[in-house]
Amino acid sequence: MRDDIAVPGASPAADLPQAFDASFAQQGLWILDQFGQAPGLYNIPAVWRLRGALRVAALEQGLAEIVRRHEVLRTSLAQVDGRLCQMVHDAAPLVLERLDVPDGPDAAVRAREIAERHAALPFDLGRAPLVRASLVRIAADDHLFALTLHHAVADAWSVGVLMRELAALYTASAAGAPSPLPALEIQYADYAVWQRDWLQGEVLAEQLAYWTRTLRGAPAGLALPADRPRPPVMSHRGDTLSFDLERETVAGLRRLARESRATLFMVFAAALSALLARWTGQDDLSIGYPVANRGEAETEALIGMFTNTLVLRTRPRPGIDFATLLAAVRESVLDADAHQQVPFEKIVEALQPERRLGESPLFQVMLSLDNTGLERLRLGDLAIEPLPAAGGTAKFDLSVDLLEDGDRVRGEFEYATDLFDRATIEQLARSWRCLLEAVAASPHMPLDRLPLAERGAAAPPAEAAPAAPPFEPLLARLARIAAQAPDA
């Protein structure tokens, strides 16, 4: 299914990795990594608290088997004759780093701090494995298990695959049984080769035509009411604000989705569009959202970087009601999902949008909904509690991350602290909850009448901060000032 790329200077007997073409997503992440900005920005951290009699040997054996099964977890990235390649190593052992915290009332807090520092450490994409794991002992029957993967080898779906496999392997190992997992049909490198063979020529032209037709003429940016002007170069420092939605609200939103032949994600996307329209005064805006991009059944069981970012363009004009906006969002999401194979970077190349310093192209707000069911995962007889991911970074101006947990939805706003104060995001969160309650109860209410304050009063959008001045080279600025005041 795939052919090795010859590694210069290698001999058949050499103990060297196999080289295969990198996927488009890996190529984009590798290019970003070359700039060296915001190390750790594309780490995927996950932390679980494990309570009970932990069998550390079973945990280590399970991790070792997963690394053996999934080549991508033994992969690094390197250039070979000008081509970016996945270098698949025969052995790249994953060491479970074991740490202890002294007993005390704040032991759990200190353990979490250790796990967060561990998650923030950058990876060297040229060295495998691009995954690390640590176990922090709080007490004899209380541990934190921290897992960090680089986005070049994994995505959010992959974390679910890994943890479900680990649960099965841990249970089997603890019972002295062999692995219950079936052999994988393909590896991530097979997918990367297929992607590059398929996505070219007429197929690529047809897929790109949809995106250029849909996004041509879309506003370059979203005028969110920031507390500070946008800096020329964003630091990507960020923070998070968590929130919960009431069960009654979630039930109403799910009922609205069923009646509208839509998904819960579509309802949230329409609601976020309505909220942003009120906060910005724009009636034409774009939101980014991730898709699993695993259209083939064989890819569902793989760890790897499959996810792609799509752009949802909406027109939440004040005169229409929410149900009308939801219907339009539904059609847009269905069309976009049918063209989800085009890498986001190729869409940007085709559209060539006006680029602004310190601003991501095509969209600045991201929306995601996780319904993988990891909240109900079991690891043998251990009680598992997933903990929120550590903050500290922000890829975009604002991200709204939602998690389905039974009949509840939990979420968080991740925001760029270069732009926003926490008080602004707290106000946005109150408006978000209030708007969702309103559309769950009255989906035919006009958008400009949807309440944005907790007590039902419509909150006007905050005034946007002044835009940052355009970039001007120092010598040009000196020349301009000298011309204005030659005698100074």
Describe the structure.
By secondary structure, the protein is an alpha+beta fold. It has helices spanning 24-35, 56-69, 107-120, 156-174, 188-198, 201-215, 247-259, 264-280, 322-337, 344-351, 422-441, 474-484, and strands at residues 18-21, 43-51, 75-80, 83-88, 96-100, 131-139, 142-150, 238-245, 285-291, 308-314, 365-370, 383-387, 398-405, 408-416. It has a five-stranded mixed β-sheet with strand order 5-6-7-2-12, covered by helices on one side.
Major sheet: size, sense and barrel closure?
5 strands, mixed
Distinct helical segment count: 12
Main-sheet strand order equals: 5-6-7-2-12
Residue-averaged pLDDT, rounded?
88
Globally, the shape reads: globular
Structure classification? alpha+beta
Task: Name the helicity range.
Answer: 25-40%
Radius of gyration from the alpha-carbon trace, in angstroms: 24 Å
One letter per element, helices H and strands E, the order comes to EHEHEEEHEEHHHEHHEEHHEEEEHH
Runs in which pLDDT lies below 50 for 5 or more consecutive residues are 7-14, 454-472
Proportion of residues in extended strands: 15-25%
Number of strands: 14
Terminal-residue CA separation: 72 Å
Question: Could you name the key traits of this structure?
Answer:
488 residues, alpha+beta, four-stranded mixed sheet, single chain, 35% helix, 12 helices
Architecture blueprint of SSEs:
Layout: E1 18-21, H1 24-35, E2 43-51, H2 56-69, E3 75-80, E4 83-88, E5 96-100, H3 107-120, E6 131-139, E7 142-150, H4 156-174, H5 188-198, H6 201-215, E8 238-245, H7 247-259, H8 264-280, E9 285-291, E10 308-314, H9 322-337, H10 344-351, E11 365-370, E12 383-387, E13 398-405, E14 408-416, H11 422-441, H12 474-484
Parallel strand pairs: 5-6, 11-13
Antiparallel strand pairs: 1-4, 2-7, 2-12, 3-4, 6-7, 8-14, 9-10, 13-14
Helix pairs in contact: 2-4, 6-10, 7-8, 7-11, 8-9, 8-11
